[in-house]
Amino acid sequence: MKKVFVLTASLMIVLTLLACEERAQGTAPGTQPLPAAADNQPASAAMVKIDNFNFAPQTLTVNAGTTVTWSNGDDVPHNIVSTDKVFKSKTMDTDEKFSYTFTKPGTYNYYCSIHPRMTAAVVVK
Amino acid sequence: MADMAKDEISHDHNHDRIDRRGFLKCMAWAGTGALCLFKGGVLTSYSLSRPSEIPIGAKGELSFVQISDSHMGFNKPANPDVVATLKAAIDKINALPSLPEFLLHTGDISHLSKPEEFDTVDQLLKAATPKDAFFVPGEHDVLGDDGKQFLERYGKGSKGRGWYSFDKKGVHFIALVNVMDLKAGGLGTLGPEQLQWLQDDVKHLSMSTPIVVFAHIPLWSVYPDWGWGTQDSAQALGYLKRFGSVTVLNGHIHQIMQKVEGNVTFHTAMSTAFPQPAPGSAPSPGPMKVPAEQLRSVLGITDVNYVKGKHSLATVDSTLLDSAGA
């Protein structure tokens, strides 16, 4: 069950990345191409989905400059708190989102401070 | 209705096991409430969902009611009307044959720490016959402001992040806060400052003093994978080992579980808002959706009595069915 879910989530992220790439190449109106796109670099946006008290993907790897958006699919509130206090979201109720743009390479561990067993990481290349 | 009552977990006093069959069946969410009655220095509790089991004229030296996890503001399918289920819990309290002296609320008063959510609960509780109420915060009550609002509303006279103690008719009550400064990967936390305070707080008490500890997250490891435990609770319980009667009342997990360890009886209460699954029985501890007609059978209130001669707390939880007219 969980595997299927993770696979689905991964697929969604890949699709999102593909969509972003297309958009960054100037096909979508009103979208500003990001510097990364000009150099033909991948992914300027990525998603992390919260479902069943889990972040998916557990570890998200992105290039510097990527904006990561978290979305809460649970019936209870969650938040996104960087373990090193780099970023912190407000409390996100069902379907609410939070975005943060990662500019510097590194590993950013984060958790939900309401449900601290929920941990995950963003790796920025 | 009577059939519903049979499906609840009743007691497992003086045994180190949980009534699992009953436990699995009681995954409902109909407004937590327990009547706690101290008689001759020993505490017994009765479920407010089964008022017929409360002895007529049962008074004892002291009685109080525990309610929990009202989650005011929650409006998802699991329970679109948490106001109605809290009201039903209050109706049950008011229908008790003898008036409890006060209410304990073991946290998650609100769902999102919004002022209007606290206001609504405060307003509803005004209809409860017991006028005194004591609170501890749940993690939902301290969102975004590290508990500042909670302390302003409920923390008068408390120490540190909101802990305090008080005495009622020879029973020492200790309110602990274990929902603040939660660390990545961790469980509920009391912290060194609170533990030090607790040690000092009980130092002067004689070992025959009955102790009631209440906190939101269970002070025993119910299911650490879901964060249902408190990482430094062993140290706190260590300070209470010498006492002959210790009762620990918690909320957070929205279902009844009981456990006895030596002189310590642990008890978790149902929610007045929505049920959560039994540990490990679902992918996550998220709210359980049950058919509307069953909702009130899974919410309840807990009565506790204290009876001398037995060093355990007898708690019985009731559902909201009876008084709610569901």
**What is the overall shape of chain B?**
globular
For the record, what is the CATH homologous superfamily label of chain A?
Cupredoxins -  blue copper proteins
Principal-axes shape call of chain A: globular
Mean pLDDT of chain A: 79
User: In percent terms, what proportion of residues of chain B is strand?
Assistant: 15-25%
Continuous helix count of chain B: 9
- The number of domains of chain B is 1
Rg value of chain A: 14 Å
Order of helices and strands of chain B: HHEEEHEHEHEEHEHEEEHEEEH
> Residue share in helices of chain B?
10-25%
Please identify the structural class of chain A as seen in this structure. Answer: alpha/beta
What is the H level of CATH, i.e. the homologous superfamily of chain B?
Metallo-dependent phosphatases
Essential attributes:
heterodimer, A: 125 residues, alpha/beta, four-stranded mixed beta sheet, 2 helices, globular, B: 326 residues, Purple Acid Phosphatase, chain A, domain 2, 14 strands, 21% helix, disordered N terminus
In short:
With 125 residues, chain A is α/β, with parallel strands linked by helices.
Written account of the structure:
The complex is a heterodimer of chains A (125) and B (326). Chain A is α/β, with parallel strands linked by helices and 125 residues long. Chain A has a single domain, classed as Immunoglobulin-like (Sandwich). Chain A is built from two helices and eight strands. In chain A, the strands form two sheets. Chain A has a four-stranded mixed beta sheet, with helices on one face. Chain A starts with a helix and ends with a strand. Chain B has one domain: Purple Acid Phosphatase, chain A, domain 2. Chain B contains nine helices and 14 strands. In chain B, the strands form three sheets. In chain B, strands 1, 2, 3, 12, 13 and 14 form a six-stranded mixed beta sheet that branches. In chain B, strands 6-7-8-9-11-10 form a six-stranded mixed beta sheet, with no helix packed on it. A two-stranded parallel ribbon of chain B has the order 4-5. Chain B is globular.
